[in-house]
Amino acid sequence: MNTFTRFFLVAVAAVAVFSLFGNVSKAAAAGANLCKANQTPCSAGQDYPTETELKLSLVTGTKLKKPGLLTKECTGSTIDGKTVTTGGETTPVEATLSSLAYSGCGTACTVTITKAGRFIVENIPGTMNAKVRWTEFEIKESCGALGECILGPEVSKGIFLRGGSEAVVKFEEAVPPKKSGNFGGCGEEKWTGTYSVTSPKPLYVSGSTSESFSGAGVFCRFEIDPCSSFFGVPGPFPSGTTLTASLKAGTTLVLDAGFPLLECEQSSMNGEVLDSGSSTEPIVGIWTSWSFGGCNCKVGVPKTGSFSIDWTSGNNGALVLSGFEITTNCGGKECNFGSSVNEGVVITGGEPAAITATNAPVPKKSGIAECTNPELSAEYEVTAPKGLFVAEG
Fold this sequence. Notes:
2 domains; 5% helix; globular; 1 helix; 51% strand; 12-stranded antiparallel beta sheet; mainly beta; 8-stranded antiparallel barrel
């Protein structure tokens, strides 16, 4: 079997995976419920129970692809499984994979699924979607004189479930690792493909809070809209993309809260895109770190929070910060800020892109009476990806 078959196989399984389930590490996983209604939390009687059958099929007219010098494709694939848990506030949904089939791959290699593994479905905060982790799987590919390859045991990024009346599972540059073997290129492919969830319908992934992001947009490698491939290079950045930004050299971050007037000469933000967005939903991610330096007061960040980006015009978007907390101490006088900032912050596409806050209102959580009506002003330069544009879809 050639590389594409391997890719296809894994993709298929992963697909089933993510729509099917989850929980390898309860401590690390986010809660989720598979819900019949577009609501979060999922109300009693609306969640799909244990033993719910899950069926996926490669979207008609599409292909499962492994991009590269020699693109390999499969034109058909189905996956069947069954949930073994219903999930909860802090527990993801788990499912087992019972069957996997593919066709139209044009390969002479032999593929054997020695371990189907387990799958993890975790809600992406603020959405009715999920990131999917496929773990404990093992796939063996034998290609005669070309050699043999064993893939596994986990794909942790690049598999995504978009909920809806017609839910889909997407592989967005997912990379199945190589466990062993001498098959050329094994474990180095980035898989792409889209599966429709044919059962159950409808299917939404609920979280534990009522937070909801709205809008539409995608991150694009090129200055084009709608975002598309260019000379064989995929246009949209996938889920799992790392987003980093640093305060622009020679500028100062200012948090004007009346008293104190916080000023910092250094600041950096590191995040991860969890939901790559679409023409109907915004880009959503989490900040893994948010730091400040060279400040006139002590600054801490107990919670970094999440973000969403909604396309506005051109190659730009509005950025919403949510769930963060910043603490300040100026000469023993403390103020805490956070919750959400939903106006005054924009991302401007370019090489590099920029994130700019202009008198953005930041809610006060607690502290001295003098800390009133705080506003944030700062200009960050996006350091990765270097070329980044916001497209409508």
